[in-house]
Design goal:
Order of helices and strands: HHEHHEHHH
Shape: globular
Radius of gyration: 17 Å
Number of strands: 2
Structural class: mainly alpha
Strand content: under 5%
Number of helices: 7
Strand order of the largest sheet: 1-2
Distance between the termini: 35 Å
Helix content: over 70%
Largest sheet: 2 strands, parallel
């Protein structure tokens, strides 16, 4: 019976790690399509921000009201919407101005990490309230964040090699807006 409880807890941690990082896949695709590279170090930084946030939120879930998680989700959603609208309004650079694998600046990395971390707050609070291990949850969030973001960027770059740049910019911006709207209402 203890083994069954352990395996169910582990399965929950894995599913929560995946669920909190689905946004990372689509954001990775959007950034890859824009020929924006996220280095391994930046990816680890983004994942660390989410993992630490998940750990703290899960650990103190009992003390945090459920109203706070709603506001955190709204803040993350608004940031993603702004990224999308800025991308739509930004003129498309000429081919000479586009550099392949242009990495994010440290500020962009921190903002993206913060936005993704804010989006995992409601799940972490719910998980903590349900008795899920904060350490297990944060490890799962970290591992899936690194993996899923890298996969998204890879697919985004593949998409960029076969499509017109303005089309990709519009599609990636709309994708960010769609994720922001989805997060706002869920």
């Amino acid at each position: 019976n203890e083994m069954r409880g352990f395996s169910m807890g582990l399965l929950s941690i894995v599913f929560l790690g995946i669920a909190t990082n689905l946004d990372n896949l689509f954001i990775g695709i959007a950034f890859g399509a824009r020929k924006r590279n996220i280095t391994l170090l930046q990816n680890v930084l983004i994942a660390s921000i989410s993992a630490i946030t998940a750990y703290v939120a899960c650990l103190f879930a009992v003390l945090i009201s459920s109203h706070f998680s709603v506001y955190a989700n709204i803040a993350g959603s608004i940031f993603l919407l702004l990224l999308g609208f800025i991308g739509l309004l930004k003129p498309t650079p000429s081919n000479s101005e586009v550099s392949v694998d242009r990495p994010l600046h440290i500020k962009e990395t921190a903002l993206l990490g913060g936005s993704l971390a804010i989006n995992c707050l409601p799940v972490a609070i719910g998980a903590g309230s349900a008795g899920i291990s904060p350490l297990g949850l944060s490890a799962s969030v970290f591992l899936f964040s690194v993996f899923v973001l890298a996969v998204g960027i890879h697919f985004g770059k593949k998409l960029a090699s076969c499509c017109h740049e303005r089309t990709l910019n519009v599609l990636s911006s709309l994708l960010l807006i769609l994720i922001g709207v989805w997060e706002l209402f869920h």
